[in-house]
Design a protein that fits this description.
Helices cover about 30% and strands about 30% of the residues. It contains 9 helices and 14 strands. The protein has about 290 residues and is of the alpha+beta class. About 40% of the residues are buried. The chain starts with a strand and ends with a helix. The protein has 2 domains: about 120 residues, D-amino Acid Aminotransferase, Chain A, domain 1, CATH 3.30.470; about 160 residues, D-amino Acid Aminotransferase, Chain A, domain 2, CATH 3.20.10. The longest helix is centred in the first third of the chain and has 17 residues. It is globular.
Length: about 290
């Protein structure tokens, strides 16, 4: 089941004015839209579980941050929230228990000066195996230093843009190496993030994740996971981490909005122990979120 909402914009100001549900099987994007020709836009993907859109406010905040980094019009949170919730309602009414909703803002048709926006909801894949058995990852050099966001802000490190060709190429490289996913490493040796995920390690009885000032996305799901972990008595922190930290970690996970928590069961072909009990508790906590 698929549901699409188009965002309406004022032709004079470019401001978002509302949304409308449309036929999901009909064409809606012009071939000259800069999303298609340049990848010039931003997006977020939120999880829908049992009728609840999870971490929507955090996704909207990050959406606005990405828009500022790309000099796009500031997304009106009320308009986008209403579109996402309308899709969630339609999916839930159609019997979808677990789904995803991607919302996209582009610079629009080249030369028109009016943005393009839409939201798309669908049924989530079955991630049971990833969540229980775990994923095999490889470490890949991202090709820039950990301070790239400060030294070269025009590279848009830390913005969630539509330009995902590098991320998809990295996943294909992982498959060539017999792995399922990727963890990027900076050229000066710091752990960063996955193409679609945030790294979490258990180190010395605390949960840690890479700092968000090193050109990576602030994880929305990871943020909720840390809130739960602190309530459960875990210490949490954001740190500069290296492959040596990954090696000595008691457990490691890739955390993302739709797949949720996937334990890492191998790194560069070397098996790792999976903490199945803690992983199950983490995923149950994420499923139980009411916002």
């Amino acid at each position: 089941m698929n549901v699409v909402a188009l965002i309406d914009f004022d032709a004079a100001t470019g401001a978002a004015t509302g949304h409308r549900l449309v036929d999901a099987d009909a064409p809606h994007l012009r071939v000259t839209d800069l999303a298609a020709t340049r990848g010039d836009g931003i997006f977020e993907t939120a999880s829908l579980v049992a009728g609840r859109v999870q971490a929507l406010e955090a996704h909207l905040v990050r959406f606005q941050q990405s828009a500022r980094m790309l000099d796009l019009p500031d997304p009106d949170a009320d308009v986008w929230r209403a579109a996402v919730l309308a899709i969630a309602e339609a999916l839930t009414a159609g019997g979808v228990e677990e789904g995803s909703i991607k919302f996209v803002l582009t610079r629009g048709v080249e030369g028109a000066g009016i943005p393009t926006g839409w939201a798309f909801g669908t049924v989530s894949p079955d991630f049971t195996a990833d969540r229980t058995q775990g994923v095999r990852i490889v470490l890949l050099d991202r090709g820039y230093r950990h301070d790239v966001a400060e030294t070269s802000p025009w590279l848009l490190a830390g913005a969630k843009t539509l330009s995902y060709a590098v991320n998809r190429a990295a996943v294909r490289e992982a498959a060539r190496r017999g792995a399922d996913d990727v963890l990027f490493v900076s050229s000066d040796g710091y752990l960063l993030e996955g193409p679609t995920s945030t790294l979490v390690l258990r180190l010395d009885a605390r949960l840690v994740t890479p700092r968000v000032d090193i050109g990576i996305l602030a994880g929305t799901t990871q943020g909720d996971l840390f809130t739960w972990a602190e309530q459960e008595g875990f210490a949490t922190s954001y740190e500069l981490l290296t492959p040596a930290d990954l090696d000595r970690a008691e457990a490691a996970w890739l955390v993302s909005s739709v797949r949720h928590v996937a334990p890492v069961r191998a790194v560069d072909g070397v098996p790792r122990t999976v903490d199945a009990e803690l992983t199950a508790r983490m995923n149950a906590a994420l499923d139980a979120r009411t916002r």
